[in-house]
Amino acid sequence: KQIPLGSPIRDVDIQKSGKFAAITSDDGKITLIDLKTRAKSGFDLEGTNIKFTSFSPNGLQIATGSGNGVISLWNLNEPSQPLNTRKHVGEILTLEFSINGLYLVTGGTDGDVVVTDTKTGVEKFRVAHDDQVKDIAFSPNNDWFVTVSNDRKIRVWDINNGRQILNMSQNNFV
Asked: Which carries the bigger pLDDT value, residue 80 or residue 54?
């Protein structure tokens, strides 16, 4: 079955249960597709200049990152009322939920890495690289996360306090 989306696709994520795919397009919409029935969900999530999306581990929230530094947390039970926060000066390039879903970590062109509480939207702490942050990954036990930057550094951070645990350098861009 062909599903018309209208605008070029920017990003896609699949809910851990495999029920929905969230498709981000250039028009700023996130379209949810039921992967079993191939039907669009009953709503589109509309934001401003959305670039990236990610389902929470429990599949009940979607996080979006935009080109203007806004992070939105969408509760799929009440999608018309996202929790919006402006956390970055520039474009958000990566976002990742912790394995337990308690935190959302974002990185962007400003070099900042922001850890946000997913229940309240409150910033827990902020750490920084010297250049844009390209990727984030969590440890399976939620004790630490890794960031990769164009400053040629791979850093490991403690999720509880933001303390840097390890700093690795490369001669070439990561």
From this structure: 54
pTM to 2 decimal places: 0.87
| pLDDT score, position 43 | 57
Q: In the 3-class helix/strand/coil scheme, how is the chain assigned residue by residue?
A: CCCCCCCCEEEEEECCCCCEEEEEECCCEEEEEECCCCEEEEEEEECCCEEEEEECCCCCEEEEEECCCEEEEEECCCCCCCEEEECCCCCEEEEEECCCCCEEEEEECCCEEEEEECCCCCEEEEEECCCCEEEEEECCCCCEEEEEECCCEEEEEECCCCCEEEEEECCCCC
Residue 45 scores a pLDDT above 70: no
Q: Answer whether residue 115 shows pLDDT above 90.
A: yes
